[in-house]
Amino acid sequence: MKILVVVAHPRTDSLTVSMANRFTAGLTEAGHEFEIADLYAEGFNPILHTIDEPDWSNPNKAYSDEVQREMDRIRASDALAFLFPIWWYSMPAIMKGYIDRVWNYGFAYGTGKLPVQKIRWITMIGETQSQFEKRNYHLMVEHHLNVGLAQYTGVQDTHVHFMYNSYGKFDGSSKEKIEAHFATLLNEAYQIGQAF
Hints:
single chain; alpha/beta; 5-stranded parallel beta sheet
């Protein structure tokens, strides 16, 4: 299987990028192929301009070169994986812009559906699990990603993986405990890739 791995974080030394590296190592171990779409590193423009607005009267509309390139990357893939931090209980603006522009009418919805078999969402959560679930934010995020995005575009095999406490905030904890926590998160990303 070939997986397009879409990553959104401005720093190359971030936990998000490290998780992407471990995830793809797991994919490799399982015999999968992958391509990385690092939205920040590639300078993806998240702003939707007129040329990429959906045209419901024309399902064969030609979109901008940047969007056509991303559509081609998706067409060449069997599955998608998205790795990003949760900011303000949502995805980073650059990733939202990617979906706004690329998952367009005639390609991802309307007369066409996303041409992939599965989607995995691997999200970094700064809070602990109990803090995040206190107001049911986990249910909101799961519903948005699995139902509002994946299932709406025809992908039924979709799952959200929450990587909690990604800032490593532990009251009075030792450096060793914090490092062990990060190692656990990175190992989990590897296992998700291995089981893909």
